[in-house]
# Entry
Amino acid sequence: MSFAVAILGRPNVGKSTLFNRLVGRRLALVDDTPGVTRDRREGEGRIADLIFRVVDTAGLEEAASGSLAGRMQEQTERALADADVALLVVDAREDITAADRHFADWLRRSGKPVVLLANKAEGRAVLPAIGEAYRLGLGDPVPVSAEHGEGLGELYDRLAPFSRPGETEPGGSGEPLQLAIVGRPNVGKSTLVNRVVGEERMLTGPEAGITRDAIAVDWIWHGHPMRLIDTAGLRRKPRVEGKLEQLSVADALRSIRFAETVILVMDALQPLERQDLTIARLVENEGRAPVLAPNKWDAVEEPAALLKHLRERVSVSLPQLQGVAVVPVSALTGFGVDVLLKAVLAAGEVWNRRVATADLN
# Structure
């Protein structure tokens, strides 16, 4: 992919719908609830023969630094910094808002090239509203309908100049290992992803349920390509509340089905609770290769005794996972992360050999 595109705009203008349209799959959660997207999500975008990296971002809102909305804004700023061109999306059916103007000014100050998209532009009735977008001073708006795939030809023309033919992405050889990271809410899944990739790639914080989408991050560890998939916390079924959490849970379960190896992250201070066991059985039922990772090991007072207890408990409560790796880690300090990734690769090799044998039979 020769260039990167960041999709930006205020909440509920259709950014995630546009992202799904460009990648050709329903990867991002889409709902009428404002603020569904929190983490930035990446994928391979394509319009005809034009291929690029596309990044979906949280809705732009003015927010205090340190708040959840402020941390979401920082993720959006990182996406813009890494992009070659920004797509500022506005709603063609509505008047330009103060938020649209604020972030148009912000994009101009960034110095990044900007393509203005007037989304939801189905039919001629919205043409006068599209004219409103000219007032943002970002050039001619491109009328599109992400929902119906209209207007992508003109978007192609706007993006084509950023293409750099012949440029390839550096990386390891072969297909990446599909690695899902699952567990109960607030056990440190996103912090673990950030520790592995060495940057604040995922939103973290004390708030429960920060992660909503299953977010894939491509990474190369010691020459081994991996696709890490951070997922929403899985609560017991009776505790799942509302349509949005149901969508998040469905996304997490889908990630398990498409993974090869699954890290089940647990809280070492409350390990192997009923829901941990339920998730472990789910992973096993899907035929994936699990690795158990009790996190927050830096806070454990008697680590040797606890590790012995955990392994004994696994053999009793999860006999179908006999021999599964139990690797204590601290996502906060980095303790055990390299050992965990070695266990993941070993489990992945066993899984792939088993699948290959099944195919032969």
About this structure: Residues 185 and 233 are 4 Å apart (CA to CA).
